[in-house]
Amino acid sequence: MSKPIFLCIPGASHPVIIYEPLKASLSLHGYSAVLLQLPSTGGNPPTFDFTEDLAAIRNTVAHLSDSGNDVIVVAHGWSGVMAGEALQGLGKVEREQRGRRGGVLRLVFIMGWVVKEGFQGARRGDVSSMFSYLRPDLQTNTATPVPDLTTTTLFSDMAPQQANFWTSQLLPQSLGVFWSRTTYAAWRHIPSTYVLCGSDRNVSPDYAEVMVQEARDCGMGELSFHFSFLSRF
User: Fold this and answer.
1) What does the pLDDT look like over 50-81, one tens digit per residue?
2) Distance CA 231, CA 228 (A)
């Protein structure tokens, strides 16, 4: 039996190259990884909401699954919202019940947002709760990473030269994804793993544990917890 393929989805304002170290590590163990850049990242033109992101995820998963592959979806940060919404009907068990090959075997959240149906980050036009490292602009409907804040918030456990490099790679983020409302929670139906990064300053480990506990309390399926420091890849 062939090994599952990893589909890696970066978080808000992050380019796909953020996953290159992980892709290289997976390759050493014989696994393949597909890195998916979401349309909302780059902000040119900005997307209205997360609809285009959902389509990108669904189309990629469907293509991989229809080719007979099992898929492990890895969602970092805010992309957990989109991954949780996009995978309806694409789980391995769900596809098997319809006589289809392949499907999502597991959903992995790396300090990702695990949210219930009906979640909305903020009402449209509200940027008061924006991530601290992003500067929102309602004229362009994008948020731009602030270099100094990005370095200290996202890459504080890296050497300065390495942190500065990754900071320079970040992209503007369309604001619409923060204003979108979810209607589905894939973690209820697909076995999930949560990777907790102890030095994360954007989503604190305590807050991440609260999100996961709330999900467990309202019917989260199989879940495993792991602790990691991604700067060690």
Assistant:
1) 999 999 999 999 999 999 999 999 999 999 99
2) 9
> Can you give the residue range of the structural domain that contains 185?
5-119+177-232
How far from chain centre, in Å, is Cα 32? 18
What is the Rg, in whole angstroms, of the alpha carbon atoms belonging to the chain?
A: 17
User: In this predicted model, which residue has the larger pLDDT, 117 or 212?
Assistant: 117
Residue 18 sits in a domain of what CATH number?
A: 3.40.50.1820
**DSSP-derived 3-state class of residue 18:** helix
> Is the CB of residue 79 less than 8 Å from the CB of residue 11?
yes
Rounded Cα distance, 65 and 126, in Å: 38
Specify the pTM: 0.89
* Nearest C-alpha neighbor of 180 from the set 233, 113, 108: 113
The stretch 74-96 carries a mean pLDDT of 96
Number of domains in the chain: 1
Residue 131 resides in a domain = no
CA–CA gap between residue 149 and residue 141 (Å, rounded): 20
Kindly report the average pLDDT of the chain as a whole number. 88
Alpha helices, H only, the chain = 20-28, 51-66, 79-86, 92-97, 147-154, 160-169, 205-217
In the sheet with 223-227, reading across from the earlier edge strand, the strands are 33-35, 5-9, 70-76, 103-110, 192-196, 223-227
Calculate mean pLDDT across residues 139-152: 92
